[in-house]
């Protein structure tokens, strides 16, 4: 099957370590688009974070944000789908995790990713790079306010524990109603049940009439694993986390070495 769609993670994959799009990578993306291949960013970022680099990468069409929970068209603003973590699920998770892991803090990302409702104390832990949002914009809300409305993404963070350590604590609760992953950022990302980058990509491909065998996907982190396994051809970066490498069909060079561009150039016969 020929490749009709390229689905790529951004941070740690398409972007250089300084979060730039290299000249080589932009040229490869443009060559793919010129060949009639769709290029879709599939990212944990919300739309406002994606727009910071969209111009440099030439992204103007469909995008998947929030780890696949939110499908939207960057040019028209059309929303294809949104999947939310419900209030009762958030409330149960927050209550049990607060009892189990003192010091844990939560954030609700709402309304197309534009509204960020952070529990009091969260902004003190955060940096702009974490959410592509300045800490002073994050708010200072009670936990009840944080869980009061559904979330595109429900964030779980602890001042000392790593995401992997937090993940084991969440899994030990054996609660239903949500999916949980992490992307290399210092927090867990809770999504609606069944949601992943693969979930969102499957829905976008159905909308576009693209078969999974026609998808080339790139990623580096645990939240990319389902997408790499789902795609007809999944490519992990050389520095990828074990989950991504295990799910992929092959490895490419690191993001610092333009590993995505290398694969696209070979695909198009440009190497």
UniProtKB/TrEMBL annotation:
The keyword Hydrolase applies. The keyword Hydrolase applies. Keywords: Hydrolase. Its EC number is 3.1.3.-. It comes from the Bacteria. GO terms for molecular function: hydrolase activity. It holds the Pfam family Hydrolase_3. InterPro entries: Cof, HAD-like_sf, HAD-SF_hydro_IIB, HAD_sf. This is Cof-type HAD-IIB family hydrolase. It comes from Deinococcus taklimakanensis. The lineage of its organism: Bacteria, Thermotogati, Deinococcota, Deinococci, Deinococcales.
């Amino acid at each position: 099957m020929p490749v009709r769609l390229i689905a790529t993670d951004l941070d740690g994959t398409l972007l250089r370590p300084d979060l730039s799009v290299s000249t080589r990578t932009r040229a490869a993306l443009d060559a793919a688009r010129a060949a009639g291949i769709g290029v879709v960013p599939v990212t944990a970022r919300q739309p406002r974070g994606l727009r910071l680099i969209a111009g440099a990468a030439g992204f103007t069409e469909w995008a998947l944000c929030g780890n696949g929970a939110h499908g939207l068209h960057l040019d028209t603003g059309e929303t294809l789908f949104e999947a939310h973590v419900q209030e009762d699920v958030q409330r149960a998770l927050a209550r049990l995790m607060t009892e189990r892991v003192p010091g844990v803090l939560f954030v609700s990302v709402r309304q197309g990713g534009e509204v960020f409702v952070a529990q009091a104390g969260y902004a003190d832990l955060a940096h702009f790079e974490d959410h592509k949002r300045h800490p002073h914009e994050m708010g200072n809300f009670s936990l009840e306010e944080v869980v009061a409305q559904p979330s595109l993404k429900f964030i779980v963070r602890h001042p000392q524990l790593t995401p992997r350590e937090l993940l084991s604590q969440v899994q030990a609760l054996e609660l239903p109603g949500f999916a949980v992953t992490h992307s290399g950022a210092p927090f867990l990302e809770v999504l609606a049940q069944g949601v992943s980058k693969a979930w969102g990509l499957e829905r976008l491909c159905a909308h576009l009439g693209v078969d999974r065998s026609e998808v080339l996907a790139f990623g580096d982190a645990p939240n990319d694993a389902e997408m790499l396994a789902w795609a007809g051809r999944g490519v992990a970066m050389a520095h990828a986390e074990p989950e991504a490498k295990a799910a992929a069909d092959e490895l490419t060079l690191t993001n610092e070495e333009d590993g995505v561009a290398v694969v696209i150039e070979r695909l198009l016969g440009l190497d």
